[in-house]
Amino acid sequence: MATTALSSADFAQTVEKDGIVLVDFWAEWCGPCRMFGPIFEGASEQHPDITFAKVDTEANQDLSRAAGIVSIPTLMAFRDNILVFSQAGALPAPALENLIGQVRALDMDAVRAQIAEAEAAAE
């Protein structure tokens, strides 16, 4: 599966889907982004059950600001509409594979319980 380009118009509906969604925030002028691009694309071919999406931070500055992007590339991982990972920096292929394995292995009931506990404690 190839990567999908996202904009402000379709970002929310994409990350709100069930399953895993990986989003790469990048820009054409960014050297590390250009290095990470083929790694991200390759992983999308190996994992057709995962949505791989890219946000061009130059073309979507409002979305980048709303997502809190301060450095690129930034990779975000969503699972079942919950942000479970966000980190700036280009990952080597083995690290991306490791991340995908960790996101797949998450106990989402436990994640939701932790979120509920944190929200209750904040009240």
TrEMBL record:
PANTHER family: GEO12009P1, THIOREDOXIN 2
Family: Belongs to the thioredoxin family.
Pfam families according to UniProt: Thioredoxin
CDD domains: TRX_family
Superkingdom, taxonomy of origin: Bacteria
InterPro entries xrefs: Thioredoxin (IPR005746), Thioredoxin-like_sf (IPR036249), Thioredoxin_CS (IPR017937), Thioredoxin_domain (IPR013766)
Gene this chain is encoded by: trxA
Protein name in UniProt: Thioredoxin
Organism listed in the record: Microbacterium galbinum
Domain Thioredoxin: 1-105
Record key words, sorted: Disulfide bond, Electron transport, Redox-active center, Transport
First and last residue of the signal peptide: none
